[in-house]
Design goal:
This protein is of the alpha/beta class and 282 residues long. It has helices at residues 36-43, 75-78, 94-97, 119-127, 131-136, 195-203, 230-236, 261-268; strands at 15-21, 53-58, 66-69, 86-88, 113-117, 140-144, 150-153, 156-163, 172-178, 183-187, 206-210, 243-247, 272-273, 279-281. The protein binds zinc ion (2 copies). One zinc ion (ZN) is lined by residues 24-25, 93, 95-96, 189, 248.
Length: 282
Amino acid sequence: MGVTINWPLTHIFHMIVEVLGNMQDGGVPHLGCSCDVCESARQDANESKYIESILLRENNDEDSARYLVNATPDIRQQVQYEYIDGVFIPHEGLGHITGLQFFGQEGPDTSDMSVFTSNTVEEYMMKNDPYRFLIDRDNIQVQAFNHGDEEDIRGGAIEAVHFHHPHLNHDTTAYMIHGDDRKLFYLADITDFNQKVEEKVKEADIAILDGTFWSEDEIGRFEEVPHPPIRRSIDQFSDFETDIYFTHLNHTNPVVRQDSDERKELRTKGFSVLDGGESFKI
Ligand SMILES: [Zn+2]
Ligand SMILES: [Zn+2]
C-alpha cells in the first residue's frame, strides 16, 4: 500500500544546504606537506578535499536563489552553478574571503553581486586591494550584515551571530540558518566554544562546528592557531540533543581519514565528521 504524504504548501520550499568543502584554510594538499593525505590528493583528483564552504539553495526549481557561505581559493571547483546570488563572508581569513577575486574581470565579471559581511570586514575590504578594486568596479555590492541582522532568502532566512575571534584581525560571524522545518547553526572557524556558542548549538537542530584539530598536540604551534580540539568538544557537547558535525579540518586531523580510530570514536559518541558532497534539507 502506498503512503500518502500531505505536505502543507509551504513545505515545497525547503532549503537545501550543500556541503562544498570541509577543510581548514590551508587546504589539502597542503603546501609543503608530504603526509599520505596530502600526497594522495596530489596524485588523484578524487582524493582532493576542498576548503570549508556551504551553499544554500531552495529545492523547488532549477533557477532557485543560491547563496554561498565563504569564498574559498577552491571556489572554481566548488561552485558548479552558472551564477550565485550572494556570498556571506564571516571574516577576512585566507579560506573565507580570497575566492571573491574570481568574480572579477578575470572571471565572470559580475555586476553588483551581493556580499554580506560585518562593518569591520567591509572596512578591511575598502582599505585593501583586490577587494577595494572589486567594489570600485561594481563587481560586488557590500551589504551590512552585523550581529542580529537577518536576511530572507528564498526557502528560509539566515541570521548573523557575532563571535570574538582573537587570533584574527577581526571577529567572526556565525550563521543561524532558518529553514522551514529546522535550524542549522554554522560556526566553522573560532578560537573556542564559550557559553554563547553552547546556547546557539542548543537552539539549533543541526550544528556544524569548528573541528580543525583532534587534539592540542597535533601540531607544534597550537598556541599560534588555537581552535577548540574535537577531543575536548565531544565532552563539552556530550549531552546535547543537537546533531553535531565537525568541519574546517586541518590536514593533520586523524578524522580526515575515513578508517581512523578517531573517526570511529566520534561516531560511537554520537557525533559526525562533515564530508564534502553531503547535503541537508532543513
Ligand atoms: Zn578558516
Ligand atoms: Zn598533509
